[in-house]
Amino acid sequence: MKKDNYILVDGFKHYRYLQESYSENEMLSKSKNYFEWANKRRSVRHFSEKQIPIEVIENIIKTASTAPSGANKQPWTFCVVKSAEIKKEIRLAAEEEERKSYNERMSDEWLEDLKHLGTDANKPFLELAPYLIVVFKRPYEIDADGNKYQNYYVNESVGLACGMLISAIHNAGLVTLTHTPSPMRFLEKILKRPANERAFLLLPVGYNSEESYVPDIKRKTMEEVMKLY
């Protein structure tokens, strides 16, 4: 059944959608400009303590929440940590797991591959950054009566949302670092998350410090990352 601006598909509304399009020259220009802007993004470990309006963080998370997800279940929760006490607790727990990783869990090859990045088990940025965003995935939902409902393509969906989150942080003129201490169950305990949530990614968010340095790395070439058939 067709209405003025939507149709009914099995009884559900489907609104007409029009994507803004551009001329070929505009597409080339916009795509090139977007790449050059995105290529400036770097993972940063040196943060300023300068504060950020919470509205900026809210807009960043709203952007991440526009990501596609399996059956539109949107299986994510973004926990924003501003409390200095909780940030310290997270840092101590993360560093404990990181020390175990560096000393026991990581292979010699893994450790060798990390050397050029200058990383170690110390994570002061988890306290310095004005905000931490802890992303949780939700494999299933629980209603008020305790019934469970399945979510679909959870890792893929949350991964897409995290990519958009990182891009939105860069767009706001801020920096971040994808931090994945493993295991991360301590985040669920510290933040008292429900049984249907699992820690997926931890991102400090803020301004980079004046004395901020990043390793001299290179992106892979087009020949390495793209194959045309």
Can you tell me about this structure?
Helix 2 crosses helix 6. The mean pLDDT is 95. The chain has one domain: NADH Oxidase, CATH 3.40.109.10. The protein has a four-stranded antiparallel β-sheet with strand order 3-4-8-7. Strands 1-2 form a two-stranded antiparallel sheet. It is built from eight helices and eight strands. The radius of gyration is 21 Å and the shape is globular. The longest helix is centred in the middle third of the chain and has 22 residues. The protein is of the alpha+beta class. Strand 5 and strand 6 form a beta hairpin.
Catalogue the unreliable spans.
Answer: none
- CATH class membership: Alpha Beta
CATH architecture: 3-Layer(aba) Sandwich
Shape label: globular
Number of domains: 1
**Overall pLDDT:** 95
Write out the CATH superfamily name: NADH Oxidase
Put simply, the count of helices is 8
Structural class: alpha+beta
- Tell me what portion of residues adopts beta-strand conformation: 15-25%
| Strand segment tally | 8
How large is the radius of gyration?
Answer: 21 Å
**CATH third-level topology:** NADH Oxidase
Largest sheet entry: 4 strands, antiparallel
Query: Order of SSEs, N→C?
Result: EEHHEHHHEEEHEHEH
Straight-line N-to-C gap:
40 Å
The largest sheet has its strands arranged as: 3-4-8-7
Organism: Lutibacter oceani
Keywords: Flavoprotein, FMN, Oxidoreductase
Pfam families: Nitroreductase (PF00881)
InterPro entries: Nitroreductase, Nitroreductase-like, Nitroreductase/BluB
